[in-house]
Amino acid sequence: MHSFPRPAIFAHRGASHDAPENTLKAFQLALQQNADGIELDVHLSADQQVVVIHDSDLNRTTNGRGRVEELSLHDLKQLDAGEGETIPTLVEVLELVGDQILLNIELKGFSSDADKLPQAVLGLTRDFGLSDRVIYSSFDPHVLMLLHRLDPAAQAGLLLPPGNLSAMIRTFFSPFVRPWSLHPHFESVTERFIRVANKNNQPVFTYTVNQPEDMRKVFRLGVSGIFTDIPLLAQKVREEFAS
Ligand code: G3P
Ligand code: CA
């Protein structure tokens, strides 16, 4: 993994407090604001292009209707993703950010082994020579297994839904996945969680931290990074810890 400041600040869906989420505008803003990384969500279009959008349907973030996987890239590109922005492809994002920033690519649209999303994403980051700047992540342990099978060097993190029980079971008792990193909800981060992760050499990146007091709490506990919609605020809070 390329070196990064600790705790690293990832702009969640880009600088999404101030620009439409998962758009080039939001990623550009994150670059301008000197975030350490950007987080983004990916799906495959009907014609197998990797597109950057959070939900599997188009309703919430665009003026379109229906499911992302049912539309071609050409049709998806006709939609407004906010402030006149279009749904970006992963290629467009990689072209924009290059090696200026770390990336966390969350693989969202995956339902079966027939899905080629992991292959497509790994292929693109490899083509751009950015593999060592990318952390892949998923809530689905099966996706992590596939990523690992396809590229044993891929840095793939397990996302943990809110709730301590779920975090405990998925993190410590799953015999099938050895995630490179753990990505819990910020309320699940405890001293014990960090201790066990440290013992297992697993960096902890926590989501989605937008309140200064929550940032202070997880910084104090020693997370490796956070996902926030407001990278500028997180940078200010991080400065309190610099000395
Ligand atoms: O990767 C952290 C975070 O993005 C996971 O939740 O729903 O915002 O994709 P969500
Ligand atoms: Ca995400």
Give an overview in words.
Strands 1, 2, 3, 4, 5, 6, 7, 8 and 9 form a 9-stranded mixed sheet that branches. By secondary structure, the protein is α/β, with parallel strands linked by helices. The longest helix has 11 residues, at 117-127. It has helices at residues 24-32, 73-76, 90-97, 117-127, 141-150, 164-172, 191-199, 212-221, 231-240; strands at 8-12, 37-44, 50-52, 102-107, 134-138, 156-159, 181-183, 205-206, 225-228. 33% of the residues lie in helices and 16% in strands. The mean pLDDT is 93. It has one domain (8-42, 103-242): Phosphatidylinositol (PI) phosphodiesterase (TIM Barrel), CATH 3.20.20. The structure holds SN-glycerol-3-phosphate and calcium ion (CA). SN-glycerol-3-phosphate binds next to β2.
The CATH topology: TIM Barrel
Strand content: 15-25%
Radius of gyration: 17 Å
Can you write the helix and strand succession as a string?
EHEEHHEHEHEHEHEHEH
Number of helical regions: 9
Domain module count: 1
The proportion of residues forming helix, as a percent range, comes to 25-40%
Q: How is the main sheet built?
A: 9 strands, mixed
Overall SS class: alpha/beta
Query: Architecture, CATH level 2?
Result: Alpha-Beta Barrel
Using the alpha-carbon principal axes, give the shape: globular
CATH class: Alpha Beta
How would you name the CATH homologous superfamily? Phosphatidylinositol (PI) phosphodiesterase
Bound molecules: SN-glycerol-3-phosphate, calcium ion
How many beta strands in the DSSP annotation?
9
The overall pLDDT, averaged over residues, is 93
Q: Give the end-to-end Cα distance, rounded to a whole number of Å.
A: 26 Å
